Amino acid sequence: xxxxxxLDKVNPMSLFGGAKYETKxxxxxxxxxxxxxxxxDLDSRDYDKATKKFQDLEKQYTFSQWERKALLMEAxxxxxxxxxxxxxxxxQRYIGHYTAAPDLDYMYYIEAMSYYNQIPDVxxxxxxxxxxxxxxxxxxxxFPNSPYADDARYKLQVTRDQLAGQEMMIGRYYLTRRNYTAxxxxxxxxxxxxxxxxxxxxxxxxxxxxxxxxxxxxxxxTAAAVLGHNFPDSPWYKDAYARLHDGGxxxxxxxxxxxxxxxxxx
Length: 266
Fold this sequence. Notes:
Elements: H1 31-43, H2 47-60, H3 65-80, H4 84-97, H5 104-116, H6 127-142, H7 149-176, H8 180-193, H9 199-214, H10 217-230, H11 235-246, H12 258-262
Helix pairs in contact: 1-2, 1-3, 2-3, 3-4, 4-5, 5-6, 6-7, 7-8, 7-9, 8-9, 9-10, 9-11, 10-11
């Protein structure tokens, strides 16, 4: 089929919008320039622009050392900007791709801190606290000599305390509703998973209370005895002791009880 005479001398590209779609290859910006521009944006705290520069660097120079540097700085920019979910996604891509990078511990740390900074109070879902505790634990296990390991240990304890706090809140709620079995299950979880947190003392006292209410004095006495043995000066022990005494009982540990077997302070 021949081209009509009226179109014979027309530039075919003009049929699709002319200069707007001009076929021009735009050269990539030098990686050093993009990287330095991103750093300058970081220095001026324009985190959105910095993130964009590092994203451009990542896309233009895939499978090179610049991609790794770009991902690292992209995650840092997103974290500084409070874009924590974006930072989590970037760190996870980095961790999955660069499994032997020298700064891998730093990316784990940014991921953990991105979860940590989104932890709500104990009345809300603690998914972020749970995820933060997992990643902090990975830092401690995989990078024990990392400069971030000590802070990871501290923040792991904070997140575990948060998780225990929610279990205690739910357990107390069940106690007020006289659903003693459900309450005991929550306090049991605190002893099984979070016994090194400050909530362990109250959990033992609440177990004393719940077992007394259920008419199971042996377990109530054991909970109070374990509490008194490990925390003799605790106000929670004084409360547990008083509750037993009111019923004509004394703290007495049964070594066959799950409480005795489960509770160990290292």
